Amino acid sequence: MEWSWQQALQLSSVAMLIYLYGFYTITNSLPITGHSGSILVMGISRLGVVGVTAMAITSGFGAISCPRSYLSFFLRPVGESEVQALEKQLMRTMEMIAAKKKRLLASKLELARKSRGAGSSSGGWQDKVGG
Fold first, then answer.
1. E strand or H helix that includes residue 51
2. Pairwise CA distance, residues 92 & 39, whole Å
3. Which of 27, 76, 79, 114 has its Cβ near the most Cβ atoms within 10 Å?
4. What number is the average pLDDT over the span 32-48?
5. CB of 85 within 8 A of CB of 78?
6. How confident is the model at residue 131 (pLDDT cuts 50, 70, 90)?
7. What is the chain's alpha carbon radius of gyration, rounded to the nearest angstrom?
8. Mean pLDDT, rounded, of the chain
9. How far apart are CA 6 and CA 2, in angstroms?
């Protein structure tokens, strides 16, 4: 079917009027401040509200869809040997932390003992600070 340019113009004009009417009725209920009466200002503000809403919807969809689709790349079966190796590493780390806490407590006790012993001596502040 071959269309003449007049028929194409008429059809596109009708489609544009239907689109504008639908856009107006959808955005008519939006709380837009500054009704200045100008059709251009009202249209731009409505287009801004609809644009921000569309961006929020697509952003939310992408935030959920992308990790869900890429999750399969990171899921792999974990063997028993890997679990045991990580448990050993965790135990070594816990033992190292316990040893460091013991050394810290011992040094605090030693410092407290020195400060009690140094408080009774007649030395100056340099002896107390320097040890």
1. helix 39-74
2. 72
3. 27
4. 70
5. no
6. low
7. 38
8. 83
9. 12
According to DSSP, residue 78 is labeled -
Residue pLDDT, tens place only, 7-29: 889 999 999 899 888 877 877 77
- Give the per-residue pLDDT at 5: 84
Note the pTM of the prediction, 2 decimals: 0.37
Contact assessment for residue 104 and residue 117, using Cβ atoms and an 8 Å cutoff: no
Contact 46, 30 (CB under 8 A): yes
Tokens of 120: 């009774």
Angle CA 58–63–65, to nearest 5:
90
How far is 115 from 110, CA to CA, in rounded Å? 9
CB distance 27 to 38 below 8 Å: no
Q: Answer for the pair 93, 80: CB distance below 8 angstroms, yes or no.
A: no
User: Own/partner pairs for 86-90, CB < 8 Å, 24+ apart?
Assistant: none
- Amino acid found at 45: S
